[in-house]
Amino acid sequence: MKIEELFSVRGKVALITGGSRGIGEMIARAYVENGVKVYITARKAEACDALAAELSKTGECISMPGDISRLDEIDRLGTEIERRERRLDILVNNAGASWGADFQSFPESGWDKVMDLNVKSVFFLTQRLIKLLEAAGSPESYSRVINIGSIEGIRTTHLEAYSYAASKAGVNHLTRIMAKFLAPKHVAVNAIAPGYFPSKMTAAIDEEGSQYVIDNAPMKRMGNPNDMAGIALYLASKASGFVCGAVIPVDGGLATTA
Which residues are catalytic? Predict the structure, then answer.
């Protein structure tokens, strides 16, 4: 098989949560530029609409704003996708939030907000869209669910982001159990565990903290859009046809060597 066919995603339909910025935007750009019809959802309609308009200059990108931390919004989004599509080839569960506070003052609101968006929505959105994912899958070509975990769910982070670290450990393991039980439906579930990429979330880390990350990563840098595009295209294409239940760090070696 030629490499163009092995890594092709042309003609597929994808939904990316948290798709208006950061890692979600990186993945959306990679898919649109390579022939995927992409739906992006995010809480802020203005940002979602603006990116969809920009990406539609080079391909097909549809804005579908919503707050997927709420089950009623997940159902509304599912209904809207079903109205437009008969199948969903790729679901990228990327939407996420973080909260930093010291142990003694860490609030319940910072726990619940992060857990609801980072873990609960991953499960219930996939559950809501399973029929469309099943419709896209076959024994020869599984549909794909790609969860965005984090290396902070693998290693012990240097940051006091208790609910974030716990939530991403949850995503990493949720990926494995979903993979086990969805594979018979011809849906392959895997996760990307990013390290530090430029985003609104990492922008909250001070200069000293950012330098600490770079100094401790064997590759001595943060990630860039091409790093994320490569793994996202791989996990959505025939190239990863026998990959199921994997959690793949994309972090310049930080989680496995530091």
Answer: 164
Beta strands across the sheet bearing 90-93: 60-63, 37-41, 13-17, 90-93, 143-148, 187-194, 247-250
- What is residue 209's predicted lDDT score, i.e. its pLDDT? 66
Taking the whole predicted model, whether its pTM rises above 0.90 is answered as: yes
**Residue 17: closest CA among 103, 125, 163:** 125
Alpha-helix residue ranges (DSSP H) falling in 183-253: 200-203, 207-216, 225-236
pLDDT in tens, 95-105: 998 888 888 88
CATH number of 3-257: 3.40.50.720
What are the backbone angles phi and psi of residue 81, rounded to the nearest 5°?
A: -65, -45
Sequence-distant contacts of 168-172: CB under 8 A, at least 24 apart:
168/118, 168/193, 170/115, 170/118, 170/119, 171/93, 171/118, 171/119, 171/122, 171/147, 172/247
- Return the domain boundaries, the chain: 3-257
